[in-house]
Amino acid sequence: MKFLIEENAKIDIKLAISWLAKKIPADEAKAQILAIIYDVKNQLIVHPNSGTKCQFNFENKYREIIKNNYRTIYKLDQLKEEITIILFCHTRMNFQSLLSQSNIYNKSIV
Fold first, then answer.
1. Which of 16, 20, 65, 107 is the most buried (most CB within 10 A)?
2. How far, in Å, CA of 84 to CA of 44, rounded?
3. Do the strands 62-67 and 52-53 form a parallel or antiparallel pair, or are they unpaired?
4. Distance between CA atoms of 78 and 90, rounded to whole angstroms?
5. DSSP classification of residue 51
6. Model pTM?
């Protein structure tokens, strides 16, 4: 199973690191966020369907995992054997706004 991170999600991850770095040293913030990403990656490689269906109906295309107060939205493509992270954010962030900003609503259903 291939593990990919979309460009928008990479930006989300950088923003999460920057936000957390306001409270703790930047190197610790980066280490904490990357640890969450690696934990999610390891879980999904072993159990790709372990996330719950996304809160909003996208024809069951997207799933989510919450770890350490961070939400990771991903899609699973069984045919291509790919897991793609499409959104990463703190659970306190306005989830629906983030989804619309990430253009999930405009992506074609595979």
1. 16
2. 10
3. antiparallel
4. 27
5. S
6. 0.83
What is the pLDDT tens value at each position of the chain, 110 positions in all? 899 999 999 999 999 999 999 999 999 999 999 999 999 999 999 999 998 887 765 566 889 999 999 999 999 998 999 999 999 999 888 766 666 666 554 454 33
2-106 belongs to which homologous superfamily? RelE-like (3.30.2310.20)
CB 54 within 8 A of CB 29: no
Helix (H, G, I), strand (E, B) or coil at 55: coil
What are the tokens at 100? 């619309």
